[in-house]
Amino acid sequence: MTAVTSIKGYGRYGWAIFFVFWALHLVLSARDLLPSLQDVCLACASGAQTPIQAVTGMTWSQLLSSNPKFASFLASTLVDDGISGVGLAVFGMVVSLTGYRRGEKWARYVSWSMPIGILAAQLNVYALTRSVMVIYLAAVFTIVSVLALLLPYRQFFPRKPPR
User: Fold this and answer.
1) Residues 156, 108: contact at Cβ < 8 Å?
2) Do residues 163 and 8 make contact, with C-beta atoms less than 8 angstroms apart?
3) What gap in Å lies between CA 131 and CA 52, rounded to an integer?
4) pLDDT computed for residue 83 by the predictor
5) pTM summary value
6) Could you tell me the CA-to-CA distances from 2 to 9, 72, 82, 108, 152 in Å, in that order?
């Protein structure tokens, strides 16, 4: 079922916001395919610990040299997470380019996974690292993704004509 309402104002860019966020998710998830990149924390303040350091007390390089079996297990888990994240990102990009852009209600409901997922993932990272920067990023990305859901509201739910 496609909405026939014309898109006005900023509402026409809701799909683009989601597409960019899903593309960012794709890049960040692809990073998990290379476990050696776990020593780089993009959302950490300068000098803050990465999630790997917060959990193990070591950098990825140190963990790899001191406990290669555990590092191998953790690497396979990270790669699995990366594969899942890349798949979810591609799915989200397709939904934003197709159904959401056309104003199909199912796509709007599916797109609620973005702000909910951002909030859940960032709160998990905060629990590990205690980095306040993560909270700031979570707030910004959650607010922007909720705006991407609210701005085109009338595209998905047009006003009923008066009788």
Assistant:
1) yes
2) no
3) 13
4) 94
5) 0.78
6) 19, 48, 33, 12, 14
Question: How is residue 75 written in tokens?
Answer: 């690497």
> Is the Cα dihedral 143, 148, 151, 154 positive or negative?
negative
User: Could you give the CA distance from residue 136 to residue 70 in angstroms, rounded to a whole number?
Assistant: 32
**66-101 b/e with 16+ CB inside 10 Å = b?**
eeeeebeebbeebeeebeebbebbeebbebbbebbb
* pLDDT given at position 47: 72
Q: In the structure, what pLDDT confidence band is assigned to residue 110 with cuts at 50, 70 and 90?
A: very high
Tokens of 157: 């739910």
Q: Which of 70, 6, 71 is nearest to 38 (CA)?
A: 71
Residues composing the chain: 163
